[in-house]
């Protein structure tokens, strides 16, 4: 695996997976490729889809790891490395002042959402949430993009939806369905604001 040069990607939060890999490698000597494969395994995506429980996943994960690796340490490090992007938070606050409806669209897992909510208290900024484990689908599944349009009330007019994400693959289905999509790179908030202004969003 080749590490991405923009490993702090994310929208509301930094990419905790990459930052967690860094910490596990530097502080504990874990092979980042082994951990990366675990966190991107088919089983991990079934966890995100809500098809297996968190306990079942990490119990299974321990059996896949080399001797001396601790699955619970990997989990806790992964969770702890998600850092709130203050620029995006301020943007959300301005958008709410303009009476835009803000929806979280995430293929996160319940335990990690609960951990981040307890740490940052961010969920009240959203008017609705579309979660992978509720829909048994993730962003690369078109059914999940359709769920977003449904919850947003944009099924008949997808062009009224603006979807901001940090991964091109994660916006493809929303784009195909007619929604506006924007890619955000951590630290490039001015570019994102300009892109929003260009499609008529007041922020």
Automatic annotation (TrEMBL):
InterPro entries: HAD-like_sf (IPR036412), HAD_sf (IPR023214). This is Uncharacterized protein. It comes from Adineta steineri.
């Amino acid at each position: 695996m080749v590490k991405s040069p923009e490993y702090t990607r994310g929208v509301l939060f930094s990419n905790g997976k990459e930052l967690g890999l860094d910490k596990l490698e530097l502080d504990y000597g874990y092979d980042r490729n082994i951990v990366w494969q675990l966190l991107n395994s088919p089983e991990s995506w079934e966890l995100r889809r809500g098809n297996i429980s968190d306990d079942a996943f990490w119990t299974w994960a321990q059996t896949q790891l080399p001797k001396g690796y601790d699955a619970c340490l990997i989990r806790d490090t992964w969770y702890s490395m998600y850092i709130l992007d203050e620029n995006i938070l301020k943007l959300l606050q301005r958008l709410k002042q303009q009476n835009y409806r803000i929806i979280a669209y995430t293929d996160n897992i319940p335990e990690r959402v609960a951990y981040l909510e307890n740490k940052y208290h961010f969920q009240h900024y959203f008017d609705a949430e579309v979660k992978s484990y509720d829909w048994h689908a993730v962003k690369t599944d078109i059914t999940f993009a359709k769920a977003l349009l449904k919850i947003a009330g944009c099924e008949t007019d997808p062009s009224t939806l603006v979807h901001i994400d940090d991964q091109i693959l994660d916006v493809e289905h929303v784009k195909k369905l007619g929604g506006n999509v924007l890619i955000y790179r951590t630290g490039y908030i001015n570019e994102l604001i300009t892109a929003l202004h260009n499609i008529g969003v007041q922020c």
